[in-house]
Specification:
4 helices
């Protein structure tokens, strides 16, 4: 991707903004699952919504790596924060 599109600020901006586009596709799929567009009816399945969510996750990982960071390290840090919040909320220590 870097070889084809470069790594400048404009490209990094596009990679970060791509996340918003993918999130919009999740919203569209969910609306389709619920049949909320009367003109279209039910157009998506839970599996299709999940596939769109996976696109969001993958796009976020690409954006993290494009920032020059290790996605695994960033995710591990985020998971630890969430774990600590849950533990604090329920009074657990582990």
């Amino acid at each position: 991707m870097d070889a084809a599109n470069g790594t400048g600020e404009a490209e990094l901006t596009c990679r970060v903004l791509k996340l918003t586009e993918e999130a919009g596709e999740v919203a569209g799929a969910w609306i389709g699952l619920l049949g909320q567009n009367p003109r279209k009816g039910v157009t998506h399945t839970r599996e299709e919504v999940a596939a769109e969510l996976a696109d969001v996750a993958f796009t976020a990982l690409v954006a993290i790596e494009s920032l020059g960071l290790d996605a695994r390290t960033v995710l591990d840090h985020c998971a630890a924060k969430v774990h600590d919040r849950i533990a604090s909320a329920d009074g657990s220590t582990s």
